[in-house]
Specification:
Layout: E1 14-18, H1 23-34, E2 38-42, H2 46-58, E3 63-65, H3 73-87, E4 92-95, H4 111-138, E5 142-147, H5 160-180, E6 185-192, H6 198-206, H7 211-216, H8 226-237, E7 248-251
Parallel strand pairs: 1-2, 1-4, 2-3, 4-5, 5-6, 6-7
Amino acid sequence: MSFAGMPNMLDGKVIMVTGASSGIGAAAARLFVERGATVVVMARRQDRLTALVKEIADAGGRASASAGDVTSADDVRRAVATAVDTYGRLDGAFNNAGWATAGSLIHETDDSVFDQIVDTNLRGVWNCVKHQVPAMLAGGGGSIVNTASTAGLVATGAIAPYVAAKHAVIGLTKAAAAEYGERGIRVNALVVGATLTELMEEVLAATPSLAEPFTSRSLQKRMAAPVEVAEAAAWLCSDASSFVTGAPVPVDGGWTAA
């Protein structure tokens, strides 16, 4: 990793990234720093966060870790406080933490699975937005990017709790954009298609038959690399997207266009 000569579209911004211990979140943390940002990374795995912060620092960037679970309001509050107390403000947030499991039909799905999926994917975003907004208002504004999914726009069989949660993330994103648009905070969602993350590898290991439909539904007939999703998040966190808010932005290889 080297930050020399990279575009500085996020220069000087302090950005919180959740789900940063792997996959899209880790890729975003690295990319944001390359683009000039300081990051506060949050995830449950402290060891991974420590390694990521060291990697960034060794390359000349600035990062702090705040281990925690987005389903805990106290953990989220602590991460926001880390940004404000350490760097003086919070300019952006990429609320990327999420979880899914191999699917089953609604009548075969245990309520505990529904609760876990909705808690992580929806309540986690709710907790983040709720506690990030006051810090951004105090600083004069900011940009929040929530990770949704193609499952937030179209149904995919046998993962009803995930579909419900990601549809709700898009609704929450629009509601937050409407509430804070005149107060300088933009809120958008990434409609993410199949991406080769550790979570995806776990899903495919449990249900190998999903590999073909995940690939074939993309008009490019492939899955995304995590950094491709991170690039979209970086743009939405930057001033280059200053007139974009309340939008579900597809980063799905054309999945929802077909």
